[in-house]
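I'll show a typical protein example:
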Amino acid sequence: MNQREGLESMITRNLFLFLSQNKFVKGKARKWGPKLGANNLIAGETIDDAMETVRELNAQGLSGTVDHLGEFVYTKEEAEESANYCIRTLDAIAESGVDCNLSLKLTSLGLDVDRNLCRDNMLAILERADQLGGIFVRIDMEDYSHLDATLELLHELRQSYTAVGTAVQSYLYRAEKDVERLKGTNIRLIKGAYKESPEVAYQKQEDVDANYIKIIKRHMENGSYAAVATHDHNVIAEIKKFAEENNIPRDQFEFQMLYGFRTDMQKEIVEEGYKMRIYIPFGEDWYGYYMRRMAERPQNIVFGVRGLLSK
């Protein structure tokens, strides 16, 4: 990438990250969702829609993790409603018998309202997941301002429940230390999707990529379960080679991709005998998620362009 391309990419990323947090645009966006291509990346609005998508993916040998989209929770009532929705989703996973985990965000459970409220909501969710046979629950990592609170709460939760993990973002300088701290935990390893300050995060893509490979290998070397979340075929090839050369069993790691992206590669990975899990977002509050996906990679804008041209 030359300097001009890098500048254009940065401008595009910053624009979409700004739009992802703009409440006015969000309020107008829902009716434009199909035209923007959101229906290519979001598995419907209801739990039934999500379960149907998971069944279709399971039939192709793909595992799933579902995430009910929701942001900007400001009241106890909203947080409790979100927690109840997570519990209903767990019930649906168990009842349908699909191969699927649950992903969630602590802010949707009240982290910004009251930490104890968020903790109690998480305990209720994990207790139901345990009752239903130990469905795994992934705490999605959010922006840097929520990082310490997320890891502290995870540590507390893991004193009683082991089927819970989180994610580590390689664009943060502290990512390697966090991986060491989370030894023995099932971690989703990602590059990162939020705009962070140069004080806490790498700004150059090559630095983010190099740190990404480093933390994946470190977590696998520690004997911990690694969920390698990437669409980068070069990263996937390197991790396959690293696992083979270091006798790391295939049941110690999996690859993950987002719903709607690189579907041919997803199937190829399964055919090669690796576990492939698809992150499946659903719900009415799709806007923030969709805009962050546009910000991550300018190539993703093609979904929106295709949608607009098809109307």
